[in-house]
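Re-run with default settings, no changes from the original entry. Doing this only to confirm the output is reproducible before filing.
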Amino acid sequence: MIVIAVDTIAHKLISEGIEPTFICSIERVHEVFEYFYADVEIPEKSIIVGPPVLDNRVFEISNEIIIPFREGISETSWLQKLLGLSSETAIPMGYSCANVAFSLGHYLGCNPIILVGQDLAYGNSEEETHAYGTKYDVLDEEINKTDDIEFTTGYYGKTVKTTKIWLQFKHWLENEINNLPITVINATEGGAKINFAKQLTLSDAVDTYCQIDIPDVNREIQKVPRYTIDKEYYLANLAGEINLYEEIKNKSGKYRKILSSITIGNNINSLLKLSEDFQLFIEGIIKQPLLLHNLQSVVMQYYWAYNGRLQIMDQEYIKQEIIEQQKLLGTIVEVIERILTILKAQLKHK
């Protein structure tokens, strides 16, 4: 079998003589490295898998790494375009390292996928959240405490205690299993029931499905061509992005000046035309994937305020609209300036 582990359990597996083919992470916080990698000797053939937001130290401790982008988000589209990479460089990642592991299994063509340790619920007490022999044995108790207690149907049909976040992991898995033409076995033998997965004991799952020799996965991966990035193509795209954002920043500044000069007595038709132009301008901004990623929340706040007002062009409406547009433009300018600082540094250092 191909063993796809998550970072939490990697040390435990290795100490038991089980060398994972892949070890998956998702969280960008520095503690992931400190808790799960710093004191672990990663086997030579184990491959680290995780998105590019991981702490760099995680990638540096492994001979082989796979860095997928997160599928379905705007900054992935931007990076793929910038680097000239195909859409297949992204996979669904869900909300947890186990979700990443599941998607990796599907990406590799594994069928069936056998889930082990996907309890997604508490054990006999709220102190029992992970397998023993992991970092969670010594982490502060506060880490495992939560007020978001929920209940769900358990593996054996009884109600079990869980949390909102574990249910989120579970529902993501269920949605993927339901939509994929593969067999998924839940061999956890406890915890929450994962709908659409077939339930078997681990022993029965191994006896039934793990009967065919699998080639050395690490050796096979060595044969797979790497994605190549054309440096000149990348730098040209980067320069183009910088020029575009400079133009958007300058136009945002001009809009701010126009708004500052408006008086309530201005011609209503002129104000209407300016408002229409502003809406088109904002629509153009959020069509840029990187700007959408960084500005989505503030643009949504603007539209909530916009749609929440009575649409009558009186003095109060104009006053409030000017305030909201100024607020949004100020944020747009500040965000773009920060983005430009980073992109220009990249272009400078090549």
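DSSP finds twelve helices and eleven strands in the chain. The mean pLDDT is 90.
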